Amino acid sequence: MLLLLGAFAVVPLLLPWLAGRIGPRAFYVAAVLPIVAFAYAAVLTPAVLSGDTPFESYDWIPPLGIELSMRMDTLAWLMTLIVTGVGALVMVYCRWYFRGKSEGLGQFSAVLLAFAGAMYGLVLTDDLVVLVMFWEITSVLSYLLIGYYNRRAASRRAALQALLVTTLGGLVMLIGVVLLVVDAGTSSISTILAEAPAGPIVDAALVLLLVGALSKSAIFPFHFWLPGAMAAPTPVSAYLHAAAMVKAGIYLIALLAPVFAVAPTWRPIVISLGVFTMLLGGFQALRETDLKRILAFGTVSQLGLLAVVLGYGTRDTALAGLALLLSHALFKSALFLVVGVIDRQLSTRDIGELSGVGRQAPVMATFSIIAVCSMVGVFPTIGFVAKEGALTALLDEALSGAPWGIVAFAGMVVGSVLTAGYGIRFIWGAFWTKRDDARRPLPPTRWPDPPIGFLGAPVLLSGLTVIAGFAAPQLDVAFAGYADLAPLGAAEHPAHLALWHGFEPALWISLATIAVGAVVFWFTARTRWSKRVLPFSAADVYNAALRGIARLSVITTSFTQRGSLPVYVGTIFVVFVAAEGTALLASPEWKLELDAFHTPMQLVVAPIMIIAGLVAVRARKRYTGVVLVSATGLGMVMLFATSGAPDLALTQILVETVTLVAFALVLRRIPARLGEHNASVWPVARAVLAAAVGATMAAVALVATSARSYKPISERFPELAYELGHGKNVVNVALVDLRGWDTMGELSVLILAATGVASLVFVTHRSDTLSRFIAPLPAAAARTRRPLVETEEGVKPRGEGRGRMAWLVGGQRVRPENRSIMLEVIVRILFHTIIIVSLYLLFAGHNLPGGGFAGGLVAGMALVMRYVAGGRYELGAAAPTDAGRLLGVGMTIAVACAIVPLFFGAAPLTSTYFEADIPVLGHVEFVTSTLFDVGVYLVVIGLVLDVLRSLGAEVDRQAHEARDGQRPGVSVS
Q1: pLDDT tens-digit profile of 86-139?
Q2: Cα–Cα distance between 94 and 87 in angstroms, integer?
């Protein structure tokens, strides 16, 4: 089972390539895997029916006790046969449904097969947490399937609606799963059901689980998404909305009902909402004129019936419920596929435009009638067997005086009447000859015969409803393993599935519902009953809720996002002072240990930092303020360097330098003097708030550093760095090994920051458009020091004539008044040396000061030098690649270092080392965490390059266009 689940994850990846070569016939290949899974489940049938439940497990997340476990009991066995069997037939059907089409088939076939795999995992998993994961995967994949016609607004809306409703229910369900798992102490479904925990927490968890189940299976008030999902291709409707996705919620109800139906919150929710959904869906189906929507609302009604019967929680209802589950999958998928044939052949599903189709397509009409008979409950179909069993079981509960038994029985009787009515309406609308207002027959709709293979799947599914009816005794034996898990209920003797029980009350009740249903159909057909009963529908409520949320978000955003940076910063500071000040004042005692200073350097540096900060506040020029702020950072460099932290000192000075460069780049586009456009307001309030923040932060630092009651783990870092990380540089080993997850998060923040800056600055795209002006230089031009000129053939060295020497390739594109030959010479000499130094810091950082972050900053500074000396085109020559590629490659390497250890049974980011004696080099050691450091190195370089490209080169380009009104690259700048 685990192997098949893995195949469901891998095979869909190959289908887009295959569909591009053989077209719709790729669906034949896609059908092979469900057929294999169906055959394997059939092979396991003897073991399942004998009670020897097949079980496979793989420890996935041992610390949390989460396993990839597959368990095939009776319920899972039936659902597996439905999911794989119907799935295989739908795949074959798709080959004919999409004949002559090729656009999007690769993605559609892959997503459809992946959905089948997700359902396969959902019904077989024995881990409740993993079930939630599969649950959400089906929601995402169904979104893609429903929105297949993505150019249609209706399809996009329907897909989003289904995703929002089912995902919202899934999130609520996740909370219930957490409560239940914590209370039970295990995530194993079989263990939870065996122990049957009870109590207020379990009751609350069951309510939350039911929210997820009801939303997935379109039970009121979540029913409206299913009719809207009919915008999907018909094979999707037949599979997702008849046999698979909507059955997920019913499956969860059936899984829990035998044990938890006695909980005080269970039956009031399941029975009341199930009955209401049954009646609402049946009532609406009688008013529809679209064949697909008739079946859609009919599905809503049938799902309500399934929720009532399977959720009631007695032995007899459980037995009849499984029969209903099987019959619904067969007849409803068959009818959806029939509608697909009609729609494909006639390009319409409106019953007002169909007349006399049954005479022209007798085979399709006959098997459609058989499927409807199973839906209505006519002898000798499996629907008749299931309906009679359910009526008998609920009648016994009602006669015993059980309140919810009475509600369930009455609801099923009325629902059966409506089912008969809309079942007859479907046959009449699809195949009968219509009459006009004068009662004259309408001309028959011209019917082009479909390919034989197109009818194969619906004919087979419809025929199975009759075969299953005659196989009722065998199904009784098969389903008994599940039914026996539930209590007996009010029945004196256990019921059995049989095609004929004699003239018992359930038979007469069933016949009466069919007769009354025929009358209801006649009445609705004669009166053309289509007027809305209420002035609004559930879909209107959903749309109103979305509009309300959108308006509330606009109001909230307009109130909180004022567009003023001082307001944002001030809000943060006020909250900080209020929260931390309250915590400090609420503390019963403060433990303070104060020293005047630790090193003499502090006495020298601290006053300088304080003075620089005070002068920065009074500065009127922006650049002066930036430099003064950087002075405080450089003061920290001195403090780190004299406190035994050379790594921190090195990193701090590099960060300060890069930050100063970034500020300088930004300052070019804003006024030189502070307050030139927007003067500072409320200076006194700002000063008071600043003083409060400083005092609060000082108090927090004093209290926090003195309040420790246990020895910090950092005291063992030197020992752990060498034992676990095989390195002597504690700081670097901590970053890439001991606390690698923190670094992974920081890398993500750096990438988000780079992307955010680029998205704010770049107008069209962020690709490298600079290197193409420099990279095509011929070898002779690259080696020459003569000036460069642009020609029709590209950039070439100028012949004899005036011009300054070209120490940097991009220097010739800088305006003469902005060039500095001395700077170009220095950069030309030092650039490669600085790159070598950055690589040294990268690889030496495991044992000496350095590391990927420091090395990346040094390499970034080399790029800064090239940009400052040669302009934006020199930056293109220095780094002829996109910054996004460096960011992506670096993050990929870091993530790979986290994932690869899992394949060897180790925890993520676990490192190992290799050592060997190499001639000349001597004893060499290599630690795998160095690869993680390489990823950090590339991400930092990518960040600096992105900042230079966006705040530097792109700002230059925009300024150049604004000044000269020309396109980039037209003239020398």
Answers
A1: 999 999 999 888 887 777 888 999 999 999 999 999 999 999 999 999 999 999
A2: 10
Determine how many CB atoms are found less than 10 A away from the CB of residue 596.
6
Query: Per residue in 476-498, is it b (16+ CB within 10 Å) or e — as a string?
Result: bebbbbbbbbbeebbbeeebbbe
| Distance, CA of 546 to CA of 523 (rounded, Å) | 38
Q: Is-cis flag, bond preceding 380, omega within 30?
A: yes
Coil, strand or helix: which one is 495? coil
| pLDDT for position 801 | 40
Output phi, psi for 850, to 5 deg: 145, -145
Nearest in space to 320 (alpha carbons), one of 206, 421, 396: 396
Q: Tell me whether residue 715 is exposed, middle or buried, using C-beta atoms within 10 angstroms of its C-beta: 0 to 12, 13 to 18, 19 or more.
A: exposed
CA distance 346 to 354: 9
Q: How many residues does the chain have?
A: 973
Contact 311, 271 (CB under 8 A): yes
Q: 802-814, pLDDT tens digit by residue?
A: 444 557 776 666 7
CA 924 to each of CA 5, 478, 721, 927: distance values in angstroms, whole numbers, following the listed order: 44, 66, 18, 10
DSSP helix/strand/coil, 926: strand
Judge whether 37 and 4 are in contact, CB under 8 Å.
Answer: yes
With both helix axes pointing from N to C terminus, report the angle between 382-399 and 315-346 in degrees, rounded to the nearest 10. Answer: 140
What are phi and psi for residue 926, nearest 5 degrees?
Answer: -130, 125
CA distance 601 to 730: 24
Q: Where are the beta strands (DSSP E) in 729-856?
A: 788-791, 794-797
Is residue 365 within 8 A of residue 431, CB to CB? The reply is yes
DSSP result, 500-556? ---S-HHHHHHHHHHHHHHHHHHHHHHHT----SSS--HHHHHHHHHHHHHHHHHHH
Whole-angstrom Cα distance, residue 933 to residue 847?
A: 13
Distance CA 419, CA 432 (A): 19
Which residues make Cβ contacts (< 8 Å) with residue 251, sequence separation at least 6?
75, 79, 122, 123
Instruction: Answer yes or no: are the C-beta atoms of 948 and 857 closer than 8 Å.
Output: no
Say if residues 926 and 918 touch (Cβ distance below 8 Å). no
| pTM higher than 0.85 | no
Task: Residue 238: count other Cβ atoms within 10 Å of its Cβ.
Answer: 31
Q: Which of the pair, 704 or 247, is modelled with greater confidence?
A: 247
* Residue 141, CA distances (Å) to 110, 160, 163, 170, 257 in order: 10, 12, 9, 14, 28
Contact criterion met (CB below 8 Å) for 761 and 954: yes
3 state SS of 923: strand
CA dist 793 → 273, 341, 371, 777, 908 (Å)? 76, 61, 73, 10, 53
Picking from 108-112, 276-280, 557-561, 839-843, which range would have the lowest pLDDT averaged per residue? Answer: 557-561
What tokens does 914 get? 């290799």
Picking from 910, 934, 925, the residue whose alpha carbon sits closest to that of residue 852 is 934
DSSP class per residue in 439-477: SPBPPPPP-PPPPHHHHHHHHHHHHHHHHHHHTHHHHHH
Looking at beta carbons, which pairs linking 780-783 to residues 24 or more positions away fall under 8 Å? 782/809
Whether residue 768 has pLDDT greater than 60: no
| Side-chain half-sphere CA neighbours of 32 within 13 A | 9
Question: Terminal CA-to-CA distance of the chain, rounded, Å?
Answer: 66
Q: What is the pLDDT of residues 314-328, one digit of tens each?
A: 999 999 999 999 999
Look at residue 913 and give its three-state secondary structure: strand
Q: How far apart are CA 682 and CA 685, in angstroms?
A: 5
Q: DSSP secondary-structure letter at 83?
A: H
Helices (H) and strands (E) in the chain, counts: 38, 6
